[in-house]
Amino acid sequence: MRVLSAVDQLFLRLETRNQPMHIGGLFLFRLPDDADADFVGRLAEQMRTSQIPPSFPFNQILHRELFWQTDGRFDVEQHFRHIALPKPAQMADLLTYVSQEHSKLLNRHSPMWECHLIEGIAADGQAGQRFALYFKIHHALIDGIAGLRLVQKSLSPTADERVSLPAWSLMTRKRHLIDSVLPTDQSLLRVAKQQTRALPAVGQALLRNVVERFDGDYVTTTQAPDSILNQKVSSARRLSAVSFELSRFRRVADAFGVSLNDVVLAVCSGALRRYLLAQQALPRKPLIAFVPYSLRTDNSASGNQLTFILANLATHLADPVERLQAIHASTRNSKRRFARLSQSSSIIYSALAYSRAGLQILTGLFPEYRGFNLIISNVPGSKTPLYWHGAKLEALYPASVVFNDQALNITLCTYVDQMDFCIAACSKAVPHSERFLDYLAQELATLAALVKSF
Fold this sequence. Notes:
- The chain is of the alpha+beta class.
- It has two domains: about 180 residues, 2-Layer Sandwich (Chloramphenicol Acetyltransferase); about 260 residues, 2-Layer Sandwich (Chloramphenicol Acetyltransferase), CATH 3.30.559.30.
- Helix content is about 35%, strand content about 25%.
- It contains 13 helices and 15 strands.
- It is globular.
- It holds the Pfam family WS_DGAT_cat.
- Keywords: Acyltransferase, Glycerol metabolism, Lipid biosynthesis, Lipid metabolism, Transferase.
- Belongs to the long-chain O-acyltransferase family.
- Its EC number is 2.3.1.20.
C-alpha cells in the first residue's frame, strides 16, 4: 500500500464530470511492409487473451482515496477496446474518435486507465496503412514524463523484436528495470519529515519574492489578463495534432541564443496571438502560461515529480523577435528561483505560491482572479525510433487535461527528429481550435524566415 502524495491528491480532488483529470497518449504506427490484413486483429487478440497480470502502475487501485493498493481482480474488458474505423479513415476521423473518448471519466472503482487499439487509418492515399494506440491514465497515478518512460519501456528499439505481452504487463518483460520504475515505499512519517526539513528554504524563497517581484522579468500570479480561453468548461473535448521537424526549432534557438523550450513557447504565443486576433479578442496585457517543470532526477516512471513556472508569452507584442526575447527573460527568471530549492522545497513552494490559482480552479471562489491563462507543456520523448511487432511508431501525440477556467492546453513531445503537438480544448469554450495547427505552422515559418535573414 502506498500513500498518495499531495500532488496526486490534488488531481483527484480537481476531477468533476466536466473536468476529467486523466492524461493520454495517441501513438500512430505504420504497418510493416509484410503485414497481412489481420495484423492488428492478432495484436488485439494477443492483448485480450494474455494471462499475464498488469504490472505497476496499471495494477494500482484507490483505497479510501488516500492510498494506492494492488488490485488482484483484473478484468481486461474494463480496460481494453479494439476499434476499426470505417475505411478510408483519415487522421481527422481518428482525432474525432479520440476526442470523444478523452471527454469521458475513468472508473475510480478499478485501476484508472484504458487502452484503445484503433485500425483502418489511411496513409499516403492508401486506406488502412496505419493503426493507432490511444492510452489514457489518471494524472494522480502518473505525470507526463513518467508516462513517456513507460511507453519507451513497452516498445522495441528494433523492427525485428516480437513481444507477446500487452503494454500493461511490460514490467514482466523487462524485470531488470523494476527498480527504476517502482516507487520507493514512503510512510506518512517519512514524508512529513522531508516536508518539515524543506520549510526553512521555502520561507526564504517566499521572502526573496518580495524583493524580486520588482524585477521587470518577474511574472506574478496576479497579472494574467481575462481572455476567452478562461471560461467554465463543458465535458466536450476536441483534440488536434500536428508534427514539425525538430531541427527547425533548434535553428531558431541557436540563432537567438535561447532554449529550445523558449522557441516552443514563442511559436505557441504567436499562434495564440493569431487566433485571438481572428476572434477579435486579444487582451491588451500578455497571456501568462503555466509551464510544467520536471523535478525528476532519477529513472523512475511513476507518480508526479513536477512543479510549475510562469512564463510571460508577450502576446501583446507584434514583433516575433521581441516576443521571443521577453519569453526567454521570464522563463530564465522563474527557473533561477527554483534552482535554489530542493525537490521537496520546490513542491511546497509551488503549493503556497499557486494556492489561490488552485483554489480558483477547484472551487471557483475567486471568479475575477486567474493565476495564468493556459498550460503549455513540453515532454521529452525517445531520441531513437520505436517499434511494435515491426510496426514503426511515426508520431506520439500527448493528450493532456483541460481545467475549469482553463479551456485550452498545448502539450508536445519530442520524438526522434520531430516535435508532435497536441491541442486539447473545450470545444464549446474555444471554437475551431483546430485552426491552431495552421497558426503554429505560420509562426514557426515566420521565425525560421527571420533566422535566414540574419
